[in-house]
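Limitations
The structure tokens in this dataset are predictions for the assembled complex, not deposited experimental models. Users should treat interface geometry with appropriate caution, especially where small molecules or nucleic acid strands are included. An illustrative entry is reproduced here so readers can see what is and is not provided.
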Amino acid sequence: MAREAFELDFARFDFFNGAVALSKPMGFSDLENEQKALSELRTRHLGKKSALASAKKLIGGVAPDDRPSFARLVQTTEGAIRQSIDEVEKALKEHIDAARTARESIDVTIPGRRPRPGHLHPITLMRQRIEDIFVSLGYIVEDDREIETDFYNFDALNIPEGHPARDPQDTFYTTEGFALRSQTSTVQIHAMQRRGAPVRMIAPGRVFRRDTPDPTHNPMFYQVEGLCVDRGITMAHLKGTLAEFVHRLFGPDTRTRFRPSYFPFTEPSAEVDYSCFNCGGTGCRICKQSGWIELGGSGMVHPNVLRAANVDPEKFTGFAFGLGIDRTCARIYQLDDIRLLFENDVRFLEQFRSFQHSGIRSLEFT
Ligand code: DAH
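Predicted assembly:
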């Protein structure tokens, strides 16, 4: 009887004997529960309150003739039960060990999860590159306001009210006479007011214009202004400085070209071009077959501008220039739409971790 009860109870462990195949793989905690159940089963069938224990107590009361055979039966039953439980316990332990190993083992052949490191925006890379060059030439970097009064954006730059030069620089106005600056030239005035003369500074930053966005225009874009004011500064200093700048940016073979132009805040004024970094000046797709790429505007600071910033034009002269950062960026990367630089689409930006892919050796930096 004890044996039958045991076998009924024990049947659920059959699969650990290999008697029955495991229908579904058991997890680690399932196996632990099985182990607990088995230990309870052991107490139930071999413990003090088990049927077997009661049978043992009966041995003394059995008729002497039957006693040895009864005792043997009890003994073999106990032995068999114990052996069965021991076997299953052993098998269970092996399963648990295997499950634990499987859980804790690391498959070193699985490809690692790659971190996705971020990087600076191409405009930032370009700005930092420009800053590095001018800082090494003794310039300070000014970071000034984006909201301006008419005085700084126009009047002090020799663009009085009603001057036609205000038109193409139409910007966004707020209340109380403030407007978003339409050019970084405003920083010329702030820098001279703050520092007096002599001064050598560049001012990179955002500017705003009421332009309809198209592949070559965006209502917000980046410029870097340059200003050098000292005693005896001439156009030769301007040409030498910008020539050195493009040498460092695009390589020592880069040439510059100055074309007469007009800006209200400089006299004389010039547009500056540099020989194409791709073809070296012979003409290609990037420079639209002209061999030259426009760098920006420049000139000798107009005496009225010096005066507006309380610098004496009898004592000091200076040169100034304004370059487009995003424009240069778009040229280097051959972007056919400048707006791509402002849409912050990671799929686009990820391609420009550095200038290493631009093919311009002197731009290589990390
Ligand atoms: N501010 C001019 C513009 O936005 C660029 C410029 C031209 C800046 C000549 C200068 C300069 O400092 O001398 O178009």
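Some entries come with short summary sentences. For this one: The two ends are 84 Å apart (CA to CA).
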